[in-house]
Amino acid sequence: MTFARSAIRCTRLVRPSFLSSGRRYASTYNADIAGLSEEQAEFRNAISEFAQRELAPRAAEIDRTNTFPVDVWEKLGHMGLLGVTVSPSYGGLGLGYFHHTLAMEELSRASGSYLPDLISGKKVGSLAMSEPGSGSDVVSMSLRADKMNGGWRLNGNKFWITNGPSASTLVVYAKTAPERGSKGITAFIIEKDFSGFSTHQKLDKFGMRGSDTCELVFENCEIPDESVLGQVNKGVGVLMSGLDLERLVLSGGPLGLMQASFDYAVEYVHQRKQFGQPVGTFQLMQGKIADMYTKINASRSYVYAVAKACDKGHVSRRDCAGAILYSTDRAIEVAMEGMQCLGGNGYINEYPMGRMLRDARLYAVGAGTQEIRRMLIGREFNEEFKSDL
Ligand SMILES: Cc1cc2nc3c(=O)[nH]c(=O)nc-3n(C[C@H](O)[C@H](O)[C@H](O)COP(=O)(O)OP(=O)(O)OC[C@H]3O[C@@H](n4cnc5c(N)ncnc54)[C@H](O)[C@@H]3O)c2cc1C
């Protein structure tokens, strides 16, 4: 089942509805304000229909049971959604980063608990850089790969690795020339059945509980020379090459979570009555709704503008970092305000607001922290003004 654009009817205001905790739940996403073309709106609608049908009804259960939904992952792969920017000859959709960000947003709106980033749902992959002792300073990693006859021997650990427990193929970074620091790192492709490779039990996370995370262990893990990805000692180039676009595409996550938080809260405050009237008609609550609504739209405008620029070949490091920095902070705020709109029910796990806050919080550390993003943006400006210093 591949995504078929022509078969999907375009509606300007998307209003899929479903029941969650006994309440009707619709989206206020407005394709006109978002600036979507007809084709982009069709693409978004197709994903929205799939995500609301397949993911949304299971989001609470996945969060509660901390279970990775392998069947859904496969369906995402069949639709080509795990390879939006990949050429159709490799099973992808051959679209741009704007579409990729839209897909991420819609999947996250249905359930923040997924971080789709591989081309096919048949094989689940992982990207392993971080270690217990090296997170933000990732090039200080200590996993070693020593050259041996016909291949390499790996010893050490990786930590917090998304999809680690279920991945069949992993891209793993290791030191091949430790004395050369960041210039002695190589990227390797590891298959899960390589001897000497194992995974520890999955981590019990605060949020994103449908996406499994664990530690990887390498004990005299012997791998062939063909496992080298790119060139020996040039791993930092591979590592850095995708980071800007990764930050951009991940920004769709906070957007989707914000929209989901807002949609739920705005409906709730118009149903819930106190003092004889819907709580949403009290001015203090109107203020919350207005702030949430404008934060979503401002974030979306920035993220979409950066995505469109990237598709035109203008990949700006400061703006890719800015897109995820800004949308993440706003998503956490919107989820907090959404929780407050529900009063006591916001604090009850039968309602989705707590999950949305917990899922939004991941974006403040996953794929680099907010502090590192601020540092990157600041550093770009320092670089620009260097000659004046
Ligand atoms: C759910 C989850 C999934 C993840 N998935 C993956 C994955 O698939 N693959 C992978 O490789 N990694 C993954 N990570 C790891 C993630 O990239 C790191 O957690 C992140 O880069 C931060 O590293 P750290 O946790 O070691 O924090 P630290 O680097 O120890 O930072 C601690 C605090 O100090 C701040 N800090 C650090 N350095 C500076 C500085 N120079 N200036 C200002 N502040 C600073 C940080 O911002 C943070 O607030 C995942 C993490 C989580 C939580």
Automatic annotation (TrEMBL):
Cofactor(s) in the UniProt record: FAD
Pfam assignment, any one: Acyl-CoA_dh_N
A single BP term in Gene Ontology: L-leucine catabolic process
The name this protein goes by in its record: Acyl-CoA dehydrogenase/oxidase
Originating species: Boletus edulis BED1
Acyl-CoA dehydrogenase/oxidase N-terminal domain location: 37-114
GO terms for MF: 3-methylbutanoyl-CoA dehydrogenase activity; flavin adenine dinucleotide binding
Gene3D superfamilies: Acyl-CoA dehydrogenase/oxidase, N-terminal domain, Butyryl-CoA Dehydrogenase, subunit A, domain 2, Butyryl-CoA Dehydrogenase, subunit A, domain 3
Record domain Acyl-CoA dehydrogenase/oxidase C-terminal: where: 233-380
Domain Acyl-CoA oxidase/dehydrogenase middle: start-end pairs: 127-221
UniProt keywords, alphabetically: FAD, Flavoprotein, Oxidoreductase
PANTHER family: ACYL-COA DEHYDROGENASE, ISOVALERYL-COENZYME A DEHYDROGENASE
Top-level taxonomic group: Eukaryota
InterPro entries per the UniProt record, alphabetical: Acyl-CoA_DH_CS, Acyl-CoA_Oxase/DH_mid-dom, Acyl-CoA_Oxase/DH_mid-dom_sf, AcylCo_DH-like_C, AcylCo_DH/oxidase_C, AcylCoA_DH/ox_N, AcylCoA_DH/ox_N_sf, AcylCoA_DH/oxidase_NM_dom_sf
Similarity section: Belongs to the acyl-CoA dehydrogenase family.
